[in-house]
């Protein structure tokens, strides 16, 4: 029977690590790390995410600010706000909640956030750092996935890992992190032939697709560690992952639930990244990956 990896409990451990670090940093450097979260418009899901991010920041004791901007703000005005935050010495981390309204170019926004304040790890400088094996800010969800895998003590060296999904924010970076740990990594996507056969090779299976219950128990190798990033609604409107949990749990050795798996870890790692940005700015160096 698969054991559940409790992302909520682990995220609490991570947040408590940050909470313990904040006063130490304040004593040493004379101020607390500060995270600014920007939301544009009134997307209900985004509102929940930003609220949880600001709440987590408050829990850790760091400074945080929520900047709420109208949906019709011009791209130029948003970029101006970001530039002002880039130049504010008291701001360490800047997060712009995605998606943005259609008239705003997300790529331009991501590129405008100063690399050393890019808590999401989406800036091209941080992406390049990740792929070149240089110091960088690692994106929150992939970093959280690695911490979840590490929490069950599985050795990645020489293992077969399959990542389903190849987005820039989850699939690709998590594949690189698994590769860095000497797993043999396959990235599957919508054009992969026989997804089940590919998934069945995986000792570590990471799903970042966005399709409710796409992966069923018969697509999982017995004893695999299954990490479900997906956040979907099932036919009854209930939150569910990319994995059909009922059929997968008996096959997997470890499995993350949705909700309560990767989601809370993403927010906890954002807190870690804010500390990393604070230190990167204070020491003018990037954290070791
Ligand atoms: P994207 O939509 O950017 O990427 C989805 C990927 O899945 C694509 O690479 C796509 O392939 C692939 N895909 C789609 N359909 C299939 C299929 N039938 N078989 C195999 N592969 C398929 O999504 P994200 O990476 O942004 O997010 C993925 C999921 O994770 C979403 O549910 C999202 O809500 C969730 N998420 C959760 C987070 C958390 O903190 N818990 C954080 C971020 C995301 P192709 O490239 O060929 O189109």
Helical stretch count?
A: 10
* Spatial ordering of strands, largest sheet: 1-11-8-7-5-6
Question: What ligands does this structure carry?
Answer: NADPH dihydro-nicotinamide-adenine-dinucleotide phosphate
Number of domain modules? 2
Report the mean per-residue pLDDT as an integer: 96
Instruction: Kindly report how far apart the N and C termini lie.
Output: 34 Å
Low-confidence stretches: none
The CATH topology of the largest domain corresponds to: Rossmann fold
Based on CA atoms alone, the radius of gyration comes out at 19 Å
Largest sheet: number of strands, sense, barrel closure: 6 strands, parallel
- How many runs of DSSP E, i.e. beta strands? 11
**Helix content, binned percent:** 40-55%
Structural class: alpha/beta
Order of H and E elements: EHEHEHEHHHEHEHEEEEHEH
CATH architecture of the largest domain: 3-Layer(aba) Sandwich
Beta content:
15-25%
| CATH superfamily label of the largest domain | NAD(P)-binding Rossmann-like Domain
